Amino acid sequence: MGLRAYVARRIVYSIILIWAVITINFLIFSMLPGDPIAQYVASLKGRIDKERYEQLRHDFGLDQPLHVRYLHSLISLLTFNFGREAGSGEPVLNVMREPMLNTIILMGTAEVLSIIVGILLGVIAAYKRDGIIDTVLTTGSLVTYSVPIFFVGWIVILIFAIQLHWFPAGGWIPDWPRGYVPTSFEYVLARLRYIVLPTFTLFLFTVGGWILLTRACVLETINEDYVVTARAKGLKERTVLYKHVLKNASLPLITSVALAFASLVGGAIITETLFSYNGMGLLTWHAIYPVPNLPLLQAIFYISALLVIIANFIADLLYGIIDPRIRYG
Amino acid sequence: MTLLSVQNLTTYYQIRRGFVRAVEDVSFSLERGEAMGLAGESGCGKTTVALSLLKILPPNGKIVRGKILLNDLDVVKLSESELREKIRWKAISLIFQGAMNAMNPMYKVEDQIVEAIRLHEKGVTKKEAKDRVAKLFEMVGLEPERAKGYPHEFSGGMRQRAMIAMALACNPSILIADEPSTALDVIVQAQVLKLLDELKRKLNLAIIMISHDLSIISETCDKLAIMYAGRIVEVGDVLSVFKKPLHPYTQGLIAAFPSIYAPKQEMSAIPGSPPNLLNPPKGCRFAPRCNYSMDICLKESPSLIEADKNHFVACHLVHK
Questions:
Q1: Chain A hits for B93, Cβ within 8 Å
Q2: Is B14 an interface residue toward A (CB < 8 Å)?
Q3: Sheet of B305-308, strands arranged across
Q4: Domain-by-domain residue ranges, chain A?
Q5: Does B51 touch chain A (CB under 8 A)?
Q6: What CA–CA distance (Å, rounded) separates B289 from B272?
């Protein structure tokens, strides 16, 4: 089997998965007690009559039989038609636009930093295994990895925002006076000031995982016979490490990196809520509490699941390109 | 002139609880075109000797004493870059147990051999190196086109042949074969050993054959060194060591090997197990398991003496 057949098979798998995601997404929301109209009606507190309620249900197609609604849902989700929000009437996609961008800025920075630093430190830890550096890194990773993120967030806010006043404790953009248009430099700088603390919090929370994972992957390959062979051949230690160890050790890392980027768009609910950062996490939180916003939630779930599938697909592709055993296996 | 002369090689591994004295005072010599077997049970330090010769010990391993003279160049004293340029693969190359994982699964076999050639011979183009790989493949009995394949596409025997081809890529004078036929079935095993024997004659190659299988060594080697708990206890011509083993451990080892011609009998084994090398016995390391152990054996470590012509043994019994 060549690379082409491998890719074709992965594509078919992904399509099946997307279908499954849509179906489950539909089932969950149709099993929930009360449809979106019922919630809207409830929020009106009786200022609506039965006839109008039925009319609305009919308008939104909620009186149709299950299989028709399923088909409708399937087509809508496939075409990214998530409908309009119940309250404002704005398209759901528009509501998500800004938070998604904000989240990508925040989580993207945190994730990229944490992956780069984590992998570098992980390789060093594995290389100097059982030494002082390794012990410090491993212990430190375990600590930051196991402390709950809201606690890390509190400490970070307490020190850097409340005590030192270096960075704002929350928000995502300053309250510029009405009519004031900041220069782009000013704008970027202001945004940066706001993402420093949540980024740092997320970084602290995730970097330990990368260190530990990389260390384990490298240690698993560093004692393989082909590494000894590479050394015996007279290759420089650096070449041995980067060409012969890291390529083999990178396989499990690729999946993790891909999934980390996929989960990125879902946002960090706790961190974003803690820092009142207007991202997907905060949006999700507001779509659940206090008044559930089902169309929005459905869209968020669907996009998150879709990204996980895409990320997995990319990871599988990279696997196939990097590891000949998978390509032909 | 002696090609390789190892003198009092002593290698320790540092672990939390102290030093593992894996190899202690090991001395032997090797001529051009000569094959020496290094035998002993698992953990007796055979592989550590091999890794010491190339100085590719794990980070916690260290040569604490001794000389490794290769053409009068002391490998122990060489710098890392001199080792890379003059010793590793250029003078001494190494093949492993069954070669299951001795080649990197991520790269084509050809590329891995080309890597070795171009590392040691600057100025060789990729094309020339690939042609050499084809010739090497022919020499070890593989179809040259197969070089474009990945290691996982090779069978065990083919992989070992490819490994041998890679080991010979830079015309080394010594080939260390660490359990070259373990994990191969007997027929393939015989083929690989035959190949090594042919190459030895053809290229005047010196071979250090590490094995726990005495029958393999008796078939392919001229000389045999028996290791026990980090020390060489007996070394000499294969024939004289087999015919007239002097050390009680060698005797036990040979007796533990059933002969297909001898009448049916219980398998004999050496009772006990090798000592902990963190804290080996003070005298002869075999003394606790030895039937002939005397007072002196527990106090003094016997040194290697020439008992017969080209037959050395380290045992207090032979002093008498």
A1: 232-233
A2: no
A3: B92-95, B174-178, B206-211, B35-39, B223-228, B231-237, B311-313, B305-308
A4: 3-78, 93-324
A5: yes
A6: 6
A-chain residues within 8 Å CB-CB of B57? none
Residue by residue, pLDDT tens for chain A (329 residues) are 577 888 888 899 999 999 999 999 888 888 877 666 776 677 676 677 778 878 877 877 777 888 888 888 888 888 888 877 766 778 888 888 888 888 888 888 999 999 999 999 999 999 888 889 999 999 999 999 898 888 989 999 999 988 998 988 888 887 778 878 888 888 888 888 888 999 999 999 899 999 999 999 999 898 888 999 999 999 998 899 888 998 899 888 988 998 888 877 766 788 888 888 888 888 888 888 777 777 888 888 888 888 889 988 988 888 888 888 877 65
Task: Look up the CATH number of domain A93-324.
Answer: 1.10.3720.10
B121-124 contact pairs (CB < 8 A, 24+):
B121/B170
A150 in Cβ contact with A158 (< 8 Å): no
**Is B56 touching A (CB cutoff 8 A)?**
yes
Structural tokens at position B6? 């190892």
Classify strands B223-228 and B35-39 as parallel, antiparallel or unpaired: parallel
Contact A233 B119 (CB under 8 A): yes
- ipTM given for this complex: 0.88
Distance, in Å, from the CA atom of B80 to the CA atom of A236, rounded to the nearest integer, reads: 9
> Secondary structure of chain A: what % helix, strand, coil (to 5)?
75, 0, 20
Contact with chain A for residue B46, Cβ under 8 A = no
| pTM, to two decimals | 0.80
CB contact under 8 A, B94 and A228: yes
